[in-house]
Amino acid sequence: MEDMPKKQIPAVEGLFTMPPEEPHLKGSKCNACGDYFFPRVDSCRNPHCSKDKPVEEVLLSRKGKLYSFTVNHYPPPIFHKPDPFVPYSLGLIELPEGIRVTSIIGEEYNQDNLKVGMEMEMIIDKLYEDKDGNEVISWRFLPVSS
Fold this sequence. Notes:
This protein is an all-beta fold and 146 residues long. 0% of the residues lie in helices and 40% in strands. The chain has strands spanning 8-10, 26-30, 36-37, 55-59, 63-72, 88-94, 100-106, 119-129, 135-143. A hairpin with a 5-residue loop joins strand 2 and strand 3.
């Protein structure tokens, strides 16, 4: 019997486009004030907005700049913890739309090869395998290779 390809399941439904080729985060844009939001919202969160026009779903830019980052040396209190735990970098990516999104960057990146202001690009990557062998996937931003 041939090995079946592993099914890819988003860690959280509706946050990014599927299939994962040319992935984008799904956000919202207010048609009254022009503000962007991630994740999507049903109404504008800007307290100074007139809110006289609806928000629309938009695909956010795949590239941005590394605004800030940290290296996590302690396991996070989330649903999946690698065992054994390996420190990993977590970044804040500033998108051209004017918003910042948090992203796992990965264990292969740290203070030696990350620099605030560097260009980053979104990918979809395996977060872990579930009990049925499916790949649970999420977004990551990685440095754009020179």
